[in-house]
Amino acid sequence: MDLRRPKDNQFFHFIQGGGEMGALTRSFDWSQTPIGPPEQWQQSLRTTLGIVLHSAFPMFLFWGEDLICFYNDAFRPSLGAEGKHPALGKKGEEVWPEIWDFIGPLLSKVMTSGEPVWFEDELVPFFRNGRIEDIYWTFSYSPVYDDSGQVNGVFVTCTETTQKVMIFNRLQESERRFQNLVAEATVGIIVLIGKDMIVEIVNDAYGQLVGRSREELLGKPLFSVIPETEPDFRNVLEEVRTTGEPIHLSEHPYFVLVNGERKEGFLNLVYQPYRDDDGKVHGVMILCHDVTPQVVAKLKMEEIVAERTRELAAANRHLQRSNAELAQFAYIASHDLQEPVRKVATFTQLLEAELGGTTDRQRSYLDKIKNASSRMLLLIRDVLTFSQLARDSDLVTQVDLGVVLDNIVDDLELLIDQKHASVAYEGLPVVEAVPLQMAQLFGNLISNALKFTKSGVDPVITVSAEKLDKAGLKSYPMLDARCAYHHLQVSDNGIGFEQLYAEQIFEIFQRLHGKKDFEGTGIGLAMCKKILQNHHGHIYATSSEGQGATFHILIPENQACFADSSTI
Amino acid sequence: MLYQNILLIDDDEDDQEIFLTALETTRKPVRCTVLDSARKALNQIHRGELEADLIFLDLNMPLMNGQQFLAEIKKDEKLRKIPIIILSTSSNAATAMQVKQLGACHFFTKPDRFEDLVAILDEVLV
């Protein structure tokens, strides 16, 4: 088909084709409108309408006094469903009443002045899709001249930019929110761009940290505004900017000079690479959180703890010294006390021998002197032994407690026979201990058992041992749960004691009986307690009067477990 | 008879007396020299003014204590053969071990019963 030649309908050759709107234009009864039937239309209208209907770009044409409306298929979607379409042939004012206030004067202006107008992303809300919609347009109104050279129409090219504007608005909104976030953040935020570290974004919180206003900082190289921070922070910034790797600094000390005054504190800092659109790092974003109060509190706490630790160590040293001095005193005192008493005892014997025959009264006095002096000697020797317990404590070795008991039974053989006593023991463990002290410990306990016997009953003494299990260990909070312990029991069938006195009997010079009934110095069990203390163990007793007594010994298998402790 | 010249070094006069009485009681035919100073004793032995084939030695003495005397005697080639018996107030096991290491042949704690001292002398002076 040759489009350049008019077809049958010679009046509509300018609106051949033109899609839906072309067809509508052709079939429209134009004779009822002010512009009359197409055969009477001016050439300029025909030409312009041809351009409108054949364009793929949205176009609209207002023609004549009444601004009769024409538009093309491309414009059609802008009218939506249930809206103005079909508006063809109607007067402009009838089609666009809701915006006539805006476009009416515009159209008149173009018609009268012949000057085109241009609007970009202009909000022109109108009725479509059953309601008034906010619609953004970019459009131009251009004058169209009629055949007589008068402006007789307005040619509209337009494109709806609602989507674009929405996206733009959303971007702006999000940008605004970001700005607010930065501005209102309690964490200091600053963004530095480029090698010169120009401040692009900064918030008040940052300004407060460095004692500068936002205005002082914005747009300037950071270190020109706060040069005092350059030595400490330039390298970090450089590193993040050049490597693109973030850096976190915790409780980092900083200082700034504000009006010549030094302001200092501690910051938690996050350095994030700041990338431009193509992903290249072109700056650094810094988040600074002021942790000065926390750090100061922590440092103060540490100082207090250190101070208390020093005090404690000093008190400990003092205590150790006075303990050592006390032991030394007890040793010297008892050592030197022995001599005169020994002489009293010896010379009394010599005097007795020298006297030969004596009266009963003389004899009695001599006996009292001898008894008193030998008791004095016994006391002094026990105090001496007690004071020496700490001195010998570096002699730990593996001690077979069975062998210790063998020796004790050997030593006490005479007494055991005299008392018709039996001493039974088996399965006793080997422990790491001071051998002499183990002998003293069990010697004291067996001697006690042989001493505090019930008259008319043959003494039966048993020593048993078992390893302390986890549950057992828990019931003795004074023990160290990481170490292995043995639980030994020394039991007798003697006179026992009231459980009430179970702790008191371990105190030095504590006696439950008169010297006449049972001789002794009241040091034996105190010594046992001290020996167990030396060995990081524990001793306690259970009994009820007349029911015999059991002494419980809890002793670690190894002393290495307490390597950090100084007692042994 | 093994020993004939006994030397007792003890600064305590009472203990000297007790020792001599005990020695008398043993009725052993020995001569006993008594000195109250270890330093004096060492000087006299070195100068050859004093001969002893057995020495009883106290430990806790002023100027030169028993241990120092013991060490000096054991340094001397000729003198180190003289047996030395420690007779001390101390009953400390560590002290006993120390003097044994220094070369003492016996360690006795001064007994508080006279007959025990006599028994010790009887045993040593067989």
UniProtKB/TrEMBL annotation, chain A:
This is histidine kinase. It comes from Dyadobacter fermentans. Residues 174-244 form the PAS domain. It is an enzyme of class 2 (transferase). The keyword Kinase applies. Residues 332-559 form the Histidine kinase domain. PROSITE patterns: HIS_KIN, PAS. Its EC number is 2.7.13.3. Keywords: Kinase, Phosphoprotein, Transferase. Pfam families: HATPase_c, HisKA, PAS_4. It catalyses: ATP + protein L-histidine = ADP + protein N-phospho-L-histidine. Gene3D superfamilies: 1.10.287.130, Histidine kinase-like ATPase, C-terminal domain, PAS domain.
UniProtKB/TrEMBL annotation, chain B:
InterPro entries: CheY-like_superfamily, Sig_transdc_resp-reg_receiver, TCS_response_regulator. Residues 5-125 form the Response regulatory domain. Signal peptide: none annotated. Keywords: Phosphoprotein. The modification 4-aspartylphosphate is found at D58. Gene3D superfamilies: 3.40.50.2300. SUPFAM superfamilies: CheY-like (SSF52172). Pfam families: Response_reg. This is CheY-like chemotaxis protein.
